[in-house]
Amino acid sequence: MNYIGLMSGTSMDAIDAVAISISSDTKLAVLATHSAPYPVELKAQLQRLGSPSSSELELAAQLDTRLGELFASAADEVRNKAGLERQHISAVGSHGQTVRHCPGAQQPFSLQIGNPAIIAERTGIATVADFRARDIAAGGQGAPLAPAFHLWMFHSRERNRAVVNIGGIANISYLPAQIGQRVRGFDTGPGNTLLDHWVAKHLGHNFDADGKWAATGTVTVTLLERLCNDDYFRAAPPKSTGPEHFDLDWLQRYLAEMRPPPQAQDVQATLTELTARTIAQALNDHFPSVDEIYVCGGGTHNKHLMVRLRSNLSSVALVETTAALGLDPDWVEAAAFAWLAHQTMTGQPGNLPSVTGARHEVVLGGIYKA
After folding, report:
1. How large a percentage of the chain has pLDDT more than 70?
2. Could you give all domains of the chain from N- to C-terminal order, each with its CATH number?
3. 323: how many CB neighbours lie within 10 A of its CB?
4. What's the gap between Cα 280 and its chain centre?
5. Cα–Cα distance between 17 and 76 in angstroms, integer?
6. How many CB atoms lie within 10 A of CB 150?
7. Which pLDDT score is estimated for 274?
8. Helix (H) and strand (E) counts for the chain?
């Protein structure tokens, strides 16, 4: 069966589309991939909408429609690249664009936009979307959802593995070798989000290519220690977070206490170390028996970050990207939502209560028929 997965993370840089084939013998084969960058002004509007101070309901509705069109276009592009007719695609699984994630609110919710009705209408393919709501309804965090896919795709019966996704927010999945042991996972904290915002503020770049700017700086130990003392890092799983918590306002509160303030490149170096250290600390604290670690997401392209991550994980024998397991790290998350669409279309659960804290397994998402 063939599926299309659509994903846009908290970095808000592009729509990633992947066409996959799922079969009992080969598990998963990637047929084609496509990345559709967001226009600069659209990204700015999305960031404005995602700000905790925003209450622009009309803007949200307009962007929901516009993103639906863009997601539909990305699905058609990757289908054409794969050489597949629409009748040969079982479903599109669309994560959408998260604009607010508040599982700890008095009335918990997680909001993704990118109108799935438009995707189904434009592509002529059944579309599964709104994956997080059902898990939250069952008492879970609604995130992370990828660990169930990581278990299906990357589990080893010989080695305890961890999968680390470094997107805007970083999250980990622990996959114990022994069948029957609980798979666990959670958001560790900021991945690329603070790095991207800080370099945009000071250099006008969308991201710190290869971590070169961070590499020119020196970690400010006092600032790093204060950042690492944030309550989120000490909270017990299940837990998830987003830019609602880790944004530039959060950083500025700590910088305001520094006299004299650090140089901008030193802050970038410190933020890189924050990402690496909090990922490593989460693994060391919760999964000390891990044998192998595989990294995916945009953070794998930040060479300086990967060096710092490996340094912080020096006790682990193997730290590689998921390419070593046969799946390009750029497409793991989009593939996960294609797989989650498969779970939904076949009536199978997509969440892991041991990860999200839900009361029980549930079939995720709503189906928009073609």
Report:
1. 99
2. 2-141+332-368 (3.30.420.40), 146-316 (3.30.420.40)
3. 15
4. 17
5. 9
6. 29
7. 98
8. 14, 12
pLDDT tens column, 304-350: 999 999 999 999 999 999 999 999 999 999 999 999 999 999 999 99
Residue whose token pair is 């991550």: 309
Q: What are phi and psi of 331, to 5 degrees?
A: -120, 10
Strand (E) positions, the chain? 2-8, 14-23, 27-37, 91-102, 109-113, 127-129, 161-166, 169-175, 184-190, 292-296, 318-321, 366-368
Spatial CA neighbour of 350 closest among 134, 205, 62, 162? 134
Inter-CA distances, 127 with 71, 109, 111, 264, 363, Å: 11, 21, 17, 44, 15
Between CA 334 and CA 344 the distance in angstroms is 15
Crossing angle of helices 57-82 and 116-123, rounded to 10°: 30
Beta strands in 147-203 (DSSP E): 161-166, 169-175, 184-190
Burial class (CB in 10 A: 0-12, 13-18, 19+), 347: exposed
In DSSP terms, which residues pair with 109 in a beta bridge? 102
Which two three-digit tokens encode residue 27? 């598990």
Least Cα distance to 364 among 86, 110, 97, 15 occurs for 110
**Paired sense of beta strands 292-296 and 318-321, if any:** parallel
